[in-house]
Every structure is written in structure tokens, then in C-alpha cells.
Amino acid sequence: MRRNLCLLAVVSLACIGGLFGCGKGESQQGIHIGVITSLTGSTAAFGEAHKNGYAIALAEVNAKGGVLGKQVVLDYYDDQSRPDQAVQGVSKLVDQNHVAIILGTFSSENTRAIVPVVTQKEVVLLMPTATADNVMETGSPWAFRICAGSGAFAATTLDFLQLNGEPKTMAVVYENTNFGQSNEKSMLDAAKAAGLDVVDTEAYQASSPDYKSLLQRVKSKNPEAIYFASYLLDASTLMRQAEQVGLNPKYYTSAGTGFAAAEFPTTDKGAGKNAEYTFSVAQWLPTAKWTGSRQFDEQFFKITGAHPAYHAMEAYASLITAAAAINSAKSADASAIRDALRQISLPDTPFGPVKFDSKGQNQHPVLITQILGGQYKVVWPPDAAEAKPVIPAPPWNKR
Description:
Blueprint: H1 2-8, E1 26-27, E2 30-37, H2 44-63, E3 72-78, H3 83-96, E4 102-104, H4 108-121, E5 125-127, E6 143-145, H5 150-162, E7 169-175, H6 178-194, E8 197-204, H7 212-221, E9 225-229, H8 232-245, E10 251-254, E11 279-282, H9 293-304, H10 310-329, H11 334-343, E12 345-346, E13 354-355, E14 367-372, E15 375-380
Parallel strand pairs: 2-3, 2-4, 4-5, 5-6, 7-8, 7-9, 9-10
Antiparallel strand pairs: 1-2, 11-14, 12-13, 14-15
Helix pairs in contact: 2-10, 3-4, 5-6, 7-8, 10-11
């Protein structure tokens, strides 16, 4: 089945201009949707999650007849986890492949880089996973985001903390990129409004082998809570080295991403036992109460042999939403798709309701999870919780 799904998502040939009257976004093969994601480079694990999520959605859409009576074809572009490559991907997909809409990219850094380009080329960009709020602050009428952003992450984390022990001090540790900087700023603003004292902020360069000096500085400030904004490799390294330096806050919290990746609790690709008791914002879990969540999990497991985190679901939801918008527009024209997205309302998807506000932001709820027994468990909000949070995190020498 994995082979069959992947074959559905292969990179297609571009529509030859004017051949048999093909319009923009259309060819003899079907309706072309562009995907920019990281299939290689430092965030390739997330790009692979994207690709599997898209494959499940593609099979579902095409099994129901595709869009506009034609099959959907995904044209992939690997941005190699680099902003400059993501920009080149827009030009390739728009000017050569003539795609109807672009989905992507993974990271906030890459997504921010392409927003001006899609705006200039007047093609719709639907963002599945970029959480830095400044990707939505340009006011571009061509930009839409299906996931929640850094401001919502910080607000939900503080709501959880205030009603679960109410720590008085926090440190923020973040990757020195657009993703990390946006999450740091959002938490500083939210903490100030909540009266929480941020006693230390630490920026770091991604993919360093050693963060022990940074963690020692955090330890010296003795924060009750730490908020991380990190991708998978760094999240794993930070937690392993937190044990080595004996850093024992009451709460390890995070802005998702690396701390919410399916691989994070594993021993081969993540932090293993060191991931235990960490909190993370999350936008979806297989146990989420939205219709179709478990079915998506089952399909993903058939393809990969593993259970998905929310990044794959965000890709799935983006393609399902794009297909619905094209059908609603009754056209593969970019302006028509943009206008359809502004009006679209999907009340019951496996990712929850999808409806965009006037700025192009989907109003998606944020969950808080904790890793318990090597598994992500929803612990907040109370009406969605499947477990009680363990607070404080046990000291390393008592685990």
C-alpha cells in the first residue's frame, strides 16, 4: 500500500503551454497542486511526515473523483531545508509547472522567504506547519495558514501553567531563526501580560553538538519552567544534556515542533527516556476527538509502521482544504481559489473545523501534551484531556 500511495504523489510533468487547451493548474494528467517541503536537509524528518500526510489525502481525494472532474497531481519541490531553495521552488512550480495552488513549506524560515514571491506571482500559498506569526503579518491576500501560530502556543501554555501550579519564573531557550525568534517574542509578550518573570533567554545556533554551557546558565537562574523552541535534533540534544548538567525545573514546556515530533520519545531518532515528562503544545493527536482522526492514524501506520504527530495531519488537512476550495471555485484559476478559501467552511475534518479569518488564519485550537510512559498524552484543556499532568517533573536522579 505504501508503494501505491507514493506512486500517486510522484512529481509530474508540467502542462505544456497551450496543449489541448490546458489552463493554469491543469494538464492532461489532471489538476496540478504544488508542494514545497524539506525532503532533504536538517528538517527532512518533517518533510517526510508531510509527504506521507499528502499521500493519504491524495488517495482520498482522487478516490472520490478528484477535483473539477479530474485527478489531482502533486508536483513536489525539495527545498533542502533552505530558504533560498524554497524561493526557487515557487518559481519552478508557478512558471514551469503552472500549478493551481502551492502548499508549504515546512519551516517558518522558509515560509517567510516565499510569501513575497507568491504574492508577486499571485498564486495562493496554503501553509500547513509554519508557526511564526510574522509569516501572516505581511497582509498578503494570497497567504493562508491552516495551523495555529506562536502567539496561540504561548497563550495556551501560560493558561495551562497558571491553572496547574502557577510557576513564577521561566527561562526561554530558542533556535536563533525566524521560528525560534517568533516563539521567543510571543512567550515574552504573553509572560509579561501574565505577570510571569522571565529570568533568562538563551538563543542558540541550530545543530550544535554541545549545549551544556547554555544549559548551565539556565540552571544558574533556577527557573521553575523552561520554554523551548527547537527542532527535533536540537530538542533531543538539549534534553539529553539537561540530564548531564542536572537541570531540574518543575516544568519542561515547549513550542511543539521538535518536542512534538513522533520521533522525539524514541531512542533511535529522539531523546528516548530523556523526553519523559516534557510538555508540548500540539495541534492534533491520533486520540483527538475529531471525526476521522483514528482512521488517519491507521492509514499512516500502514504506510510507515509508526504513528503520526500533528505535522503529517496538517499536510493532510491542507490538501483536503485545497481540493475543497478548487471544487468550490469551480476553477483552477488562482484568484477564484483565493476567493473560495476566504469563504470556505469545513466544520468536520480530522483536523477539526477549518475556516479562515479575514487575515487568512484558520482558528485552530491548541492542545497541551505530556510524554508519559513514552507516549504523548493530552493533558489540557480539561475537556480534551486523556491523562492528568505529572507535576513537577521528577529530578533526574529519581527517575
